Amino acid sequence: MMIPVKLISRLTGYFSRLKVQRLILDSVIDYYCRRYKVDTGEILVPQGGFRSFEDFFTRSIRPGIHKIDKNKNSIISPVDGRIDQFGKITACTMIQSKGFYYLLSELIPDDSMNRYFIDGYYITLYLSPADYHRIHFPVKGRVAGYSYYPGRKYSVRPYVANRINKVYCRNEKLITYFVTDCGLMAVCKIGAMNVGNIQLSYDNLHAGVFKRKCGFIYPEKNIPAVEKGSELGVFHMGSTVILVFQKDSIQFENLETGKNVRLGDKIARINLLNKE
Predict the structure, then answer these.
(1) Is 239 annotated in the active site?
(2) pLDDT in tens, 88-125
(3) In three state form, how does the secondary structure of the chain look?
(4) Residue tagged active-site, from 97, 136, 155, 249
(5) Annotated catalytic residue within 9, 77, 239, 249
(6) Residues 6+ apart with CB under 8 A from 114
(7) What's the CA gap between 35 and 128, in Å, rounded?
(8) Global pTM?
(9) Per-residue pLDDT tens for 42-96?
């Protein structure tokens, strides 16, 4: 039996945006926090409370919770999440999970962009239902453009990533490219089941804008340089982020698969030996 994942995702998005009575919404949020062990002490509740479940899910975190590594040569985690995989892109191949692989060209189909990342590095970060779902820039830089690719809405939870090959490549993707001190970097935001939208905070754009534009897109307006830790985008419901780096540009530090990281934690450093 085929599961209509796109329809389910649309319905979930619709109901999550509904404005409901405060008592009902608070009960739903309370159950969700208990079910997924959300740290409620970190939540920045807006004045008057949340108006919809989506407002709660895309919540902000109280100032000071996330400690951004200030070293100018550090690369930080852009999200709260878990390290699923990381390593070198060998023979243009990346690891999804044990026994499952995918090609760089399948993750970033545009040859004019994926060629920059041949023999480079990647790290896959999974955002659980309990995590903060805003995405931030891992280093300072300048946005060069984005790519949008429509696709499926498979779940990216671990049990699915361990059973469906190339799930990150099959799903909807919104990729931000930006120029940094370690060369070109790509932040691949992977859509998933119940992800109603992927929004770009720095340009106030979202995946829905790109429905008829597939592939590389130049920004429609000049985007100022972005700082490390500034907001990049928002997942409306949960998903996965994959960072992709150029060859010899970075060195990972003290990482292990299955480890949880927080936004602002140092995950790598710029390879100074290769800076001009």
Answers:
(1) yes
(2) 999 999 999 878 899 999 999 999 999 999 999 999 99
(3) CCCCHHHHHHHHHHHHHCCCCHHHHHHHHHHHHHHHCCCHHHEECCCCCCCCHHHHHCCEECCCCCCCCCCCCEEECCCCEEEEEEEECECCEEEEECCEEEEHHHHCCCHHHHHHHCCCEEEEEECCCCCCCEEECCCCEEEEEEEEECCECCCCCHHHHCCCCCHHHHECEEEEEEEECCEEEEEEEECCCCCCEEEECCCCEEHHHHCCCCEEECCCCCCCCECCCCEEEEEECCCEEEEEECCCCEEECCCCCCCEECCCCEEEEECHHHCC
(4) 136
(5) 239
(6) 104, 105, 107, 108
(7) 12
(8) 0.87
(9) 999 998 889 888 889 899 999 999 999 999 999 999 999 999 999 999 999 999 9
* Catalytic-residue membership of 136: yes
Catalytic: which of 66, 77, 80, 84?
80
